[in-house]
Specification:
Helix content is 65%, strand content 0%. The protein is mainly alpha-helical. The longest helix is centred in the N-terminal third of the chain and has 23 residues, at 44-66. It has helices at 6-27, 44-66, 83-94, 99-118, 122-126, 139-145, 148-168. The chain has one domain (6-168): dinb family like domain (Four Helix Bundle (Hemerythrin (Met), subunit A), Up-down Bundle), CATH 1.20.120. The protein is built from 7 helices and no strands.
Length: 169
Amino acid sequence: MRYASKADFVARMESEHDGFLELAESIGKHRFDEPGVWGKGWTIKDLFAHLTAWERMFLGWHREGLAGRRPQMPAPGFKWNELPKLNHSIWKEHKNEAWEAVAEAFDESYEEMEAFVAGLSERDLLEPGRFAWCTRYPLTTYLGANTASHYGAAIRILRRWVRDQARSE
């Protein structure tokens, strides 16, 4: 997605994040461990862990890039065409974590993303090729995919699950 300004990006990131939280909270934390939300066995808690993992991957890519190294994207041992396999690996890594730990990591990760974005100039966010690791793309190509667009996808997943749950009752 293209963004017109830093303010546009920040507004979208905040709006999608808040929308995801509001929807999840409206479902109720007592349902956060119910399987079937997405994929095989995923829960709402797993969706939170998934979002956190991808935010942290993005921050790792950026750190690697700033250090003059080419980040291993999307993750070491995975190619872009192996995202289902990577997402399954993330799920396996976090599926047994307690909700409290997942929630704390999610909040910390988002705060880190907010601070990261606050420290960037509009040029840093929007100029294609500004960071060598992004090649010819603006930083928002990767940042937006791991924040605003990802929260939007999570909202759609939750809405579909809620709709399907209502139909089966």
